[in-house]
Amino acid sequence: MNNASPKGIWKVIGASSLGTLIEWYDFYIFGSLATVIASQFFPNTNPTAALLSTLATFAAGFIVRPFGALVFGRLGDLIGRKYTFLLTLVLMGGSTFAIGLVPSYESIGFAAPIIVLLLRLLQGLALGGEYGGAATYVAEHAPANRRGYFTSWIQTTATLGLFVSLGVILITRHSLDADPTVSIAKFNDWGWRIPFLVSIVLVLVSVYIRMKMKESPLFTKLKSEGKVSVNPLKESFGHRANLKMVLLALFGATMGQGVVWYTGQFYAQSFMENVCKIDFEQSRTILIWAILFATPFFVVFGSWSDKIGRKWIILTGMLVAIVTYKPLFGKMLEISTPSEALAASSEVKESTAAIANTTNVLRTQVTRATFASGMVIMTTQKDTVYASSATQVSKPDVKVSKVLGTADYWKMVAIVFMMILYVTMVYGPIAAFLVELFPTKIRYTSMSLPYHIGNGVFGGLTPFVATLLTTIYTSDKLVGLMYPILVAALSLVIGAMYISNKE
């Protein structure tokens, strides 16, 4: 086997990881800004419907990932790994940059969400081809007995892409104005576009680096021997033995891994912001700290899988997630709910402003309640006072934002860290696990499809389905967890019964 030298493998990992990290950044910047995007591209008459529409658009990018896996997986097995995931990088970067240029709903009406949806679909197609290419490329350069360790570095890129997206958002928001109120208004108005637009610079840098990379040695050997697959799709899914491996990989591993991944990061963020009502900035810094502390464990579990096998590490991650999700999310809810019946201090400010082209007045009342635990709850209520009657007012628009005290803040970081630790268990070894299931000549196609159905469809739908369940069963704020728990439980049973540890 023509594996890369120790120095060469780190160049391969560095170049592959940088490009993949940038693609994940591009893909997840949309989810990180879901609430802001909802107000920009959808009618704001119903904020909940707008948020669900945004999450559905976010999910659409995941649903098309399997199609991207088929299209680009086939190309990767026919023409090579390098040029295929170079193409996906350009497609992803261009789509992300374009989202930053789309006019708002107020400017072009329903054309805005339609254009954003189309660009989101292009992002999904690109990502469907990127991951399989990068994971295969690194695995085919790595020695077999250290494949879990070396491919685990690629596994860090998805979480680090989310980390970078959150960091860029916060830096952008703070740089717009010294006054926090003004900077938030500017960010929500136009500043949110900056994280989308700057991605083009990152993409160009990565394209330059990837252009200098050589083709995978295993694929080069296949090509020189004339053994490249003539029809990767037929060989991957038309042969019973290989199709069995594809289905086992999907239902016994990637399906459960996908819901654990998106619950521990995206649904955790959505739950903090929309259910716990934690301040925008705090919810993101909580996630940033948790990601920072947990990310090294991708490599720990990836390396460990070289010694004891991939299967049981992945399935154990699913098991602890199933057992502890409800207690952990319940604790998040408890932390964000003041234990005191009354605030230690309370301050109310009221202001009015004339509504343009009418004789009516917009009244804004802001209540700031501070509790002994250090928690501050800001309640902003807006209503319209009609000129025809001083007592006639519109239905108030009420928004609640909570800033946690120091002790509660770090408790929340610890909880999210635990959930991301589960992510590292199921995700760290998965690339090596998938690569080893399939022969070299159809590896790109065969591993990409179950990965992107498991992560893109089952995993990517987690924030949308979980949020939807909470709007249907409003009395149970933890009902959204039933989706990832049931999917992970099904995957755990199938994986334990039908996948052998050597696979």
TrEMBL record:
Name of one Pfam family that matches: Sugar_tr
SUPFAM superfamilies, alphabetized: MFS general substrate transporter
Taxonomy, superkingdom: Bacteria
Localization per record: Cell membrane
Membrane topology, from the record: Multi-pass membrane protein
Transmembrane segments: 21-42, 48-71, 83-102, 108-128, 149-170, 190-209, 246-266, 286-305, 312-329, 409-435, 456-475, 481-499
UniProt keywords, alphabetically: Cell membrane, Membrane, Transmembrane, Transmembrane helix, Transport
GO function terms (MF aspect): transmembrane transporter activity
Residues covered by the Major facilitator superfamily (MFS) profile domain: 12-503
InterPro entries assigned: MFS_dom, MFS_sugar_transport-like, MFS_trans_sf, Sugar_transporter_CS
Protein name from the UniProt record: Predicted arabinose efflux permease, MFS family
Species this protein is from: Cnuella takakiae
GO cellular component assignments: plasma membrane
Gene3D superfamilies in the record: MFS general substrate transporter like domains (1.20.1250.20)
